[in-house]
Every structure is written in C-alpha cells, then in structure tokens.
What we know:
Blueprint (H helix, E strand, L loop, with lengths): L2 H32 L2 H5 L5 E7 L18 H9 L1 E7 L5 H10 L13 E3 L6 E4 L9 H7 L3 E7 L18 E5 L12 E4 L2 E4 L32 H14 L6 E6 L37 H26 L5 E7 L11 H4 L14 H4 E7 L8 E3 L3 E2 L3 H9 L12 H5 L9 E9 L2 E9 L5 E8 L7 E7 L15 H13 L13
Amino acid sequence: MSTETFHKATTTQQMAVLILLCFCLIQYTQMTSARSPIDNAVGSRPNVIYILADDLGIGDIEPFGQQRIKTPNLNRMMREGMVLTQHYAGNTVCAPSRAALMTGLHSGHTQIRGNFELGGFTDEEEFGQMPLNPGTATVATMLQDAGYRTGLIGKWGLGGPNSYGVPNKHGFDYFLGYLDQKQAHNHFPTHLWENEERYPLDNAFLHPHQSLPAGADPYDLASYEPYQRRDYAQTRLNNAALEFIETTDEQPFFLFLAYASPHAALQVPDEDLVSYSTFDETPYTAKQNYLPHPKPRAARAAMISNIDSSVGAIIDRLEKLGISDNTLIIFSSDNGPTPEGGGDMEFFDSNSIYRGYKRDLYEGGIRMPTLARWPGRIQPGSRSDHVSAFWDLMPTLADLAGTVSPNNDGLSFLPALLQAEGQEQHQSLYWEFHNTRGGHAQAVRFLDYSSKSWKAVRLYNENSDTKAVFELYDLDNDPGESMDLAAENAKLVEWATKIMDSSRSRSFIDAWNFD
C-alpha cells in the first residue's frame, strides 16, 4: 500500500469514527431529553432548605389570601414556584408535628404524640420536652448518611439540654436555636444553644408568662418598658441561616430553618411595628397568659413580615452565590394559628375558610400554607392540589438525594412538585392528639370508593357520659367542615372508624392511648 493510499484509508476511518460518535451523541441527547422530569430529578442531590414557621395559619400570608399582612417575598416564592393547597402538618401542636416531620411517621406511629413537657420556664428549669430515642431515623440522619452537610437553625422541641434528643445526636452537623420550646415563648431570651453549648444573648431574663401589673395604664407605653429587651433571637437566627448557606462547597446541604415566630409571646423590635401603625388596637394585658403588648395586632403582623424578609434574604443570597437553581426551598408551618398571647385570628382571617385553630384537628389546625421553589425544575406560578403531609418529606428528599428512605408512613411528592406523571396517592391520612381540652381526638382524611374526599373527626371527653363524638365532613363540597354528615352515612362512619383503629400502634405513654 502506498503512503498516499494509507493516509486516504486512515482519513476515511477517522471520518467514519467521527460520524459514529456524532450519531451516538445525538442519540444520547435525544434519550436524555426524552427522560421524564422525575428521572432527571431523582438523585440530582440539590441543596434543600425547609423553612417552618410556628403557629402560622393558612390564611396568614398573601399567597393564601391574606389582606392585612404584607409578604412580598413569599409572593415571590409563589410566582417563581408552586402553591401546595393541600399539604398537612404532622399534628396540631409543636412537638408531635415536628416529630412527624423529622421521622416520616404520623402521630399514630411516632414516639412523641403530644407536648410532653419537662421542667419549667426559667433558665434554671430548662429541661425541654420528651427527647427522641437514640437511634431514631430522621430526615437529617438520612441525608447526613447520603453525604449532605446538615444544619438546624431555630426551634427544636424534641430533646432538651444534655439529653439524648439534642439535634447533634439526630443527624445535624450544626445547630443554633432553642432546644426547649418553652424557652421559645420568649423571643428575647438570655441565650440560645449552639450545638450543645449555651450561646449567650445580651438580654436580662424575662419570664414569658406575666401580666401588666394592677393599676398600670395599658395605653401608656411606659407601662411596657419592663418587658423591653434588645437582642432579638429572630435576628440571630436569620443571620445564622445566611452564614450556613454561605459555607458552600462541593457537598450539598440540608438546612432546617425552624422559626419560633409568630408563636406567642407577641414580641418584635419596636421599629418593625411602624409598617402596621394604622391598625386599630386594644392593648393585650395578658392576665398571666404570655406577655402584655400595647399593639398586639401590629406585633403579630410584624413577626410574620420579619419571617418574610428572611425568606427574601435567603433567596437573594442563593442567587448571589449562583446556587439558586440547585436549591429546593419549601416553606410551611407546624400547625394552625392561635389567639393565645393576644393574636386576633378574626381580624387577620388567619385560618381562611377553614374551621379550627391550633389544638384542633379540623382543617384550620392542620392544613398548612405551603410553598415550594426550585428554579428550572418547579414550574413558576404553578399550583398542586395533591394531598400530602409532613411524613411525606422524608421519602421526597430521599428521592432527591438518591438514597432509600427508612420504612415509614410517607409517599414521595416529588412528582407533584414537578407536575410529572406517576404520583402515588394516599388513601388516607391519620392524626391523633392528646392535649385537647378535656380529652383526646382523632382525625382521618380518606377516599371513598369513588375517590371522593371525606374527613372524619372523633372527639373523646372523659368527663362526659358520651365518651366519643363522631363527625363526618364532605371536604370536596364543604372544606370548612360546617355540616356534619355522620348521622346519614353509617357505612362511611364505619369505614373511617376502621381506619382510625388500624392506623395506630399502642403508645408507651398511657395518657396517649384511647382506653
């Protein structure tokens, strides 16, 4: 073979290889583009920021219809992401709701099924709540094992100081905030906790449950000077969240940002009240229930606006760092709103069209104002009516992290977030609550044979001859639960009763059982 012939043959072979490579590249591109949004998202390992407000009602923010409180940054989340219209809390009070969120187990299966308080409200009596058992699988341990850097900033409530329930023993690399949720009744405390060490704040001790002294003029601002402090815990938490996000590297992060606002006491820096100075106010004098405040409406609105400003700062920081498109943010609340501490639920229409507040298993106590933002993945301005709950977070994040969720009660709602096919549906959701006034309560949301949505509530009263009252509501036509249909739907009542009886395991705490 001549040299010229050899070079021609080689060139022909090279061209053939090049054409084959181009063909393969085109095929791969077509196959990749044809993959579903779920295929592309599973195992994508985005950063995750889960923001949880405290006692924020579904009607308390503008994306869900609020008219008096301005939440421009949550509006931005709505415009750039998704509104989840039927996302439920784990419970109707703090500790069991957070336990469901962290463990992926509903309140018929979780260890912690109520606010089991230890100690008192003073610094010397700070013992927290019942701690999570050692070895409990949590969202944080799951993601930590999957290679995530994990942080909790804010309120914990699942184990006090020096207990086996502190966040660092349950999967969190970093913690700054309140261990004892009773301490979180005061937003100007003497200290927070950083990991397992006290983190001092520049505040003198202030007991969170005291009233205006007899003879004090409730309309004189000087009467409230004894309750003034300067070092606002919320500001510390906001700054810590930004600092945690700033610590970027190749490792993805999970940040659980659990604000203690707008839970009473109603406290906020005075300068934050200016935006709501036009509200007509009746001073809240407390009567031993949280702290007095001269402008309770403005204070609660300003606390919510403070959270909104923090959300805006977080989104801005993500964009500045160039990691916004690789970060899923979910915003929600731990349970419904409450009039405790001077909160005016009717003025703000805090539970929207829904019945009930905190400590109720009606929709107003457990249906949460939930938003999700993930640029490039979640469609801007979208809405999902998919029915989900706190215990669904663990399998959802397991999908994103490319790991396996521990066996629990949840279903991944990633398809709903991405508006993709294949979303599994709950046939029922179950709650139980053991701190109701005078007894216990159970609730189940379930589908009948035609996939119609029903809600059953069973109320127990140990002080009554009638031990249990059963109520049944048609949520499709009566989301406000105003018309009890139990008397005319015996088969559905029987169906719901079976779900309630089969959805729980016996608790080791006798007070958390129904017999």
